[in-house]
Amino acid sequence: YENNLKLLATIIYCEAGGQCYAGRLAVGAVVMNRVNSSYYPNTVKGVIWQPYQFGPVRHGKMAREMKNYDKGLYNYPERSGSLKAGKYIVKYNGKTINLKKYTNFNGHLSNAKIRISGHDFA
């Protein structure tokens, strides 16, 4: 459990650390939706480290953030919101959004269904 929390918190911070709480929740939901999908690996680690899926993994930011987690930096406000992101229902711009079906996000997706903060989700 603790390792999954560490992995989720760090990928959420890497992908959406500067975004609103709904944006962080949405990134976490995408990871968990992939874990629960037969099209992706069935573990948090497998999903995050699947080749060519998450830029922060490829570019080393994920490894740096995991060290920050180990140093206790996720106990401070800047990163602590990433620890709480584990829900599927978010409120964003006055709308309630169920994130249970989204498995992809990016800055710009041609088939996006919703946009939350700086990401499109499909």
Report how far apart the termini are.
27 Å
Shape label: globular
Strand content: 5-15%
Radius of gyration from the CA trace?
13 Å
Number of strands: 5
Q: Tell me the helix content.
A: 40-55%
The chain-level mean pLDDT equals 86
Question: How would the blueprint of this fold be written?
Answer:
Layout (H helix, E strand, L loop, with lengths): L1 H15 L4 H15 L8 H5 L6 H4 L2 H10 L6 H8 L4 E4 L2 E4 L6 E2 L7 E3 L2 E3 L1
Antiparallel strand pairs: 1-2, 3-5, 4-5
Features:
3-stranded antiparallel sheet, alpha+beta
Care to describe what's here?
The protein has 122 residues and is α+β, with helices and mostly antiparallel strands. The radius of gyration is 13 Å and the shape is globular. The mean pLDDT is 86. It has helices at 2-16, 21-35, 44-48, 55-58, 61-70, 77-84, and strands at residues 89-92, 95-98, 105-106, 114-116, 119-121. The protein is built from six helices and five strands. Strands 3-5-4 form a three-stranded antiparallel β-sheet, with helices on one face. Strands 1-2 form a two-stranded antiparallel ribbon. Helix 1 packs across helix 2 and helix 1 (2-16) crosses helix 5. The N and C termini lie far apart (27 Å).
